[in-house]
Amino acid sequence: MSPTPEQLASELDRLLAQRTREGWEIISRSTASAQLRRRPASMGCGIIGFILVPLLLGVLLHQAFFTLALIGLVVVGIAAALRKEEIQYISEEDVRQRLMAEVATSGKPETPSSPASPPAAGLVSPGPATSTHPGDTSSDISG
Is the pTM of this model over 0.85? Predict the structure, then answer.
């Protein structure tokens, strides 16, 4: 038996609420699919630890620390250049497969304890991915 459009919409709402709690931001959404984005975390500790501390030590103690600060600048610059935002696409088929898997394992679709409401765009906190855009291999797939 195929899930109804209402069941698909409810499961998509629940899945999007979960993803926004995990740090994903909704870029676009239709009634049956959504595209999400997660930006990389800030590099504050790397900047402080590899650049500012050696610069301060270079001023206070010895000029050799300036070389260390330059090396730190290169390392932090390379690390920042290699970081990419993650893009995730959740299609109607992904939601349908998720519902069918729940029915197969429990005998009935899982229902949230409270009614699902559409997640607010822009809520960001860290978390894992479940699906990726067809051409994107940077995110791991876990379901």
Answer: no
